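Here is a typical protein record:
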Amino acid sequence: MKEKDNKNASSEQPSFVDEKLVPINFKPIARSSKRSKILFSPIKVTIGLAFLISLSIIWFLLTAKSVVVTIAPTEAKPKVNIYGGLSFQLSDNYLVRPGDYTLKALAPGYFDLNHTFTVNEKNLAQLELTMKKKPGHLRLTSKPSGSEIIMGSEVVGLTPFNIKSIQSGEYEINLSLPRYKTKKLDVKIDGLDIQQDIHIDLEPDWGFLELDSSPSGAEIKINDRYIGNTPFSVPILSTGEIVSLSYDGYKTWKKKLSIDSGKTKIFPKIELELADGTLDLTTIPSGATITLDGEYKGNTPLTLYLNAKKEHDIAIFLNGYLTQKKSISLVSGEKRKISVDMNPIMGAVTVVVSPKDSSVWINEEPQGTGNREFQLPSHPQLIEVKKTGYASYKKFITPQPKFEQIIDVQLLTEEQAYWASVPKEIITTMNHKLKFFRPINEFFMGAPRQEIGRRANEVLRKIIITRPFYIATKEVTNEQFSEFQKHSSRHFKGKTLNKPKQPVVNISWEQAALYCNWLSKKDGLVPFYTEENGKLIGTDTGGIGYRLPTEAEWSWVARSQNIAVESETLFTGYPPKNKSGNFADKSASDILSSVIPLFDDGYPTTSIVGSFDENEKGLYDLQGNVSEWVNDFYEIKFNLSGTAEIDPMGPKSGKFKTIRGSSWRDSSLSSLRLTFRDMANSPTDDVGFRIARFIQPIVKK
């Protein structure tokens, strides 16, 4: 089977035995699709690009805005660049499109300039800029070196010295070196980071003095600095120096000498004097006054220098001691010490004391108790008298010879001494004058029933005032009150009530109390009246701030010094005498319906405070001018038991406040009496006030 297949295969293959290969020309096979060709001409491309660039330039020129840039100083000649977009420079003009840009300018010697600006569609931009110079530098040298460099009033260094970073400008610089003339320089600093150099040769400020002495070889010092020994050529400043020559056994010669700079001069030979003798003088006791040959020298202990060529008179004085005189002479260079016991001048002093067992002290030394007699030196002596529970007594006295002095001492208890030390008058910051009072006896407030003109509210009450107090001598004025609160006292029927020195009126009791609180704070005192949100809610009865006087205090100070049981009238008889007070008088007849017949005080309304005579206690206008608010709520209080009321301040509450004293409106006998009292709860044109305060109580040990 296999052989059959091979046979068949062999018979099917072509025969190449007789065929030859003949070469022919190659022809590529033609493609079925064709590709087009685009040819670029260099000339056309160039023309096209030029056209596009031209269009861009024309567009830029048509849409760009001009920016004018001026940079000072012109000599800086800076290099300017603008960042933020396309720009084109034409001299000082720059063409830029609208937008935000940054200008940078650089110039040698100047700080770099950076400026941001905005160009808009409408406005022409104009930039005026200034470049700041860099500071300059100055190097100063001098011969000799070490000179102080002074700019203004400040020492900046010593030569040689380089002063860095000086702003450009003109400066005054001084070079100063001891013993050389100060050199003043007017220096112009160029700045621009430039280093400037200046050298100065300083000029000596001394000359030479040829000094010699007799004896020669004396030690020479200039301003206590050793220079040499005579004879010697001494350099001395033209401004002068202290020159001293010293030689053992001789007085030191000292004088201020000067000589022109650069000059040499021979000074006259100096004749040294023999040295003084030295006397050390002391006295017992010390402190004595010494005179030498009639000339004051000082107080002991003292060292005296005596001319060895003569005898000297010395006098010794001490207050209370006998004067002593001595004559003395010393040889040259001698040193001597003298001590003198002073002999006292005695005087008799007798000290009488009460209480009898008080102790007596002289110059802080105890001398025993009771009355004492002393013989004391006639110079100031400190006398003291002491006793436990009493204030000590101290006094300096000078005993006198042949004259006995008697010192009578009545010691006060500490409480008595305290009250004796209290000022009898005080002045407030608002110029209120207050007087001190310390009532002792009881008195009656009110009027007896039989008194003519008595009103039902004037019930007799026995009063004791134990708390000393101050009270103002005059009523508060418009001027004073307006410092606390803006206020007008107004007028009455065209007659003013509002002059500065007239008493303030048309104020409520609360306004008067608030003024007292304001004044207390102004004078550093704790307010007497308690406030809450501007309202008065109580009192500090133990306080010492300013307040209105109590009715009891007002009643007491209105009376005469000699307190009487019965009430007193302000004047004898009715009508009152002219000028006795400001009441409803004939000058007010055209504005008041009732006046005192034939009485003329000269004031139709209120008068200037203090225009009329003071009372026996030194207070003004307690009757007349204006009635006065007092501290108390109003009440009519009966005292059936007859017991005394101690320091009454009125009821704790009430509808009305008490008013005391008459005013410019009053004309009746009833209202002109001291015991007249009224009430109100609102302001009126004839009611004012005065201030008072308690005294700080003594602290008992």
Q: What stands out?
A: Helices lie at 2-12, 42-63, 414-421, 478-484, 509-522, 551-558. The radius of gyration is 57 Å.
